Amino acid sequence: MKKIIFYSILFGxxxxxxxxxxxxxxxxxxxxxxxxxxxxxxxxxxxxxxLYYREASGKLSERLSEKVKVIASEKPxxxxxxxxxxxxVSHFRFDFGNSERETDVKINKIIFTxxxxxxxxxxxxxxxxxxxxxxxxxxxxxFTRKIINGxxxxxxxxxxxxxxxxxxxxxxxxNRLIINILLSTILSFSICIAIFLxxxxxxxxxxxxxxxxxxxxxxLLMPHLDELxxxxxxxxxxxxxxxxxxxxxxxxxxxxxxxxETYYNDNFGFRKKMVSLGAMLRIxxxxxxxxSNNVIVGKDNWLFYWKSEIIKNSYLNKNPFSSDSLGKFxxxxxxxxxxxxxxxxxxxxxxYPNKHTIYExxxxxxxxxxxxxxxxxxxxxxxxxxxxxxxxxxxxETLLKQKKNDQLYLxxxxxxxAKGAYYAYYNIINLISKEDRSISPPLGIDVFHLQxxxxxxxxxxxxxxxxxxxxxxxxxxxxxxxxSRNHFKKSKDIYGKGNLLIENLExxxxxxxxxxxxxxxxxxxxxxxxHFRNTIFIPNIRLDMKQVKAIDPDIIVYGIVERNLExxx
Length: 569
Hints:
The protein is α+β, with helices and mostly antiparallel strands. The protein is 36% helix and 23% strand.
């Protein structure tokens, strides 16, 4: 029995060491990480195509570009562009013609690859991620290159693709994972067999004790091996600053040992790996929750934000408004309503439901059982709006109904996805278009071609749990919408620091709409600007009369996530 336990422990230790070593050194060399962009094109003329790339804050330049010679052919050919992995690339420009050509170019698909993973953009959705310039005209079979005033420079300019690329980089390579597991298993098993046979042949007395001691020494050395060779590449971000290495001086020599111990406890080798593995084991095997005061792990591994008193009070109904008038908060709405009525403007309000509200069935029973019977702040808010004849829309009924068919919020994040935001957009624009006939009705969901990204590994709640999700134990489906912004022009800080102006150059009306909101508005801003000439987003959970008067909009919309109602008396 002792031998079985011994060889099991030895096999486990060898497997962990070999797995980390193979991941860090062997398989990285076998398949180096590099972002590649491939275009499958058809062109009947010899030419030179060029891909420019830049970071979010950078500019396009020849230095950050690559040229590829294209051979005339009626068959599809693959053009490959290698992007340096040192850059956090977000934008691309694909020039498909440095000569004055007018023949059509067919782009069947664009492929982003990284570490063996692929994100394929088919012809039907290219226009959603890339916009063509005036020397280019898109049609069913490809792109026509045009000459204007004797000049031609056709290109496609991408929207911000940083999130797409980050998702691609975060996605684990299953082939590499399987190869690593098999390789580490075979090597570990072989070493154990060799030790077993060797021990049988030489019949050393106390050989088990020797190997136990060797294994124990290896455990002690592993943190130092990581410090020397940087073996631990676990990516977790703790919500605190880790202790920095102290310097010893004559003044602090008596405090140095204690300070160094604190530093070492924060920075010893394989700490991040152990923190991450420990968190995952506690959740997956023992159904115990690390940092349970910060994140709730619910049914089917749904995660819920629980870190602040704001979200706890919001869900548990601990702190309803003290009066039906909502105090100063309510007074600001009455003042805005009066201003809107006096100046023939439309003012409406809404609240975006918490993830806890729509997916309450995923929250553990022990949490649901401690909810108070008090009236909810969101109910008080809508009662106040209705009593004072302020137009509003409540999304709860719609989202609760639609969640039976679609996932509306991210499992590992505190926000909704594009599909959840779409239904809120539909309600808001439906109300506005009924009040103002110059505003077009909301578009059907099929118009937007929402994309479903499977095996999404991100989410703002995972780092709070201390989990590196590179192995994909907490998978999610990320539903997103990337609009074709051919007729959108964005400008920041025009109407104040942090404010965003989105101009719809093809809008049939001249209306300006102001939206007050928070982080839940981010997905909404992919849909709302389709209906207004100017859309101005003000990231503020409080109505600001001064800004409204300065902008002089036609429509004023106030919308915040439910938990932010807790910020008011």
